[in-house]
Amino acid sequence: MTEHKATLGKLPKGTGKDRAAVAPFVTVLFNPKELTFSKTNTWTPRKTPKANAPDLEFGGGGAASLKMQLFFDTYAVGGDVRTEYLDQLHKWVMVDPDLKEKKTDKGRPPEVRFNWAGKVIFDGVISSYSERFTLFRDNGEPVRAVVDLTLTESQDGAYLAKQNPTSGGVGGDRVWVVREGDTLPWIAYSEYHDATEWRAIADANRLTDVRYLRPGMVLVIPSA
């Protein structure tokens, strides 16, 4: 089946979900395993003496947010994962002098759009960003990275994803985050239903000590 890769792209100036994300955009190598949407509202208790619970008055809606974890890898194709992927993400966290706040006329970071399988999942700004490198070449060049992102709604989008964006089918390589007690045969059995296929996972991740897996390691699981 065809794999629909998720993308993150910069939005031009304007409002509304009809804006098209423009180049440059980043296409993820491995689609996220989960997306976490959240939203808060403010409720203010009214003074109600001798009541077991106060009446609440709605004080306004807070911005919605989307948290996700993205995986990038350049081991197979060559190149530094920072140059190929992360440098572009960094630009969307930093202030863009061409974009101005209306009230202060100060620069601000751009809005971005998270898109998956041709569907707009979320528009917002990158409010939180962290990255960690989990695989390196012998010269210290990082070739695998895990990026944790939080997008925060910057204007009332009035929509969230209404269906599973992967319903069109997912294929290709996947990732496995190692947990305490995991072994390569167990991972191979979980992914392929065949514990003897552990060697393919070891080779894809350049594992020299196949008995030692560190919790939190990110392993590429080659397609069967």
Keywords for this structure?
two-stranded antiparallel ribbon, globular, 224 residues, 3 helices, mainly beta
Report on the structure:
The protein is mainly β and 224 residues long. The protein is built from 3 helices and 13 strands, in the order ββββββαββββββααβ. The protein has helices at residues 81-93, 184-192, 198-204, and strands spanning 7-10, 22-27, 35-38, 41-45, 56-61, 65-73, 96-100, 107-108, 112-116, 119-136, 142-152, 174-177, 218-221. The chain has a 7-stranded antiparallel β-sheet, with helices on one face. A hairpin with a 5-residue loop joins strand 10 and strand 11. The longest helix is centred in the middle third of the chain and has 13 residues, at 81-93. The chain is globular, with a radius of gyration of 22 Å. The model is unreliable at 166-171 (pLDDT under 50).
Largest sheet: 7 strands, antiparallel
Question: What is the residue-mean pLDDT, rounded to a whole number?
Answer: 81
Could you say which structural class the secondary elements and strand pairing correspond to?
A: mainly beta
Question: Whole-number radius of gyration?
Answer: 22 Å
Strand order of the largest sheet: 2-1-9-10-11-6-3
Our measurement of the CA-to-CA distance between the termini, rounded to an integer number of angstroms, reads: 13 Å
Strand content: 35-45%
Per DSSP E runs of 2 or more residues, the count of β-strands stands at: 13
Q: What is the H/E string?
A: EEEEEEHEEEEEEHHE
Oligomeric status: single chain
- Give helix % range: 10-25%
* Uncertain stretches: 166-171
| Net shape | globular
Tally of DSSP helical segments:
3
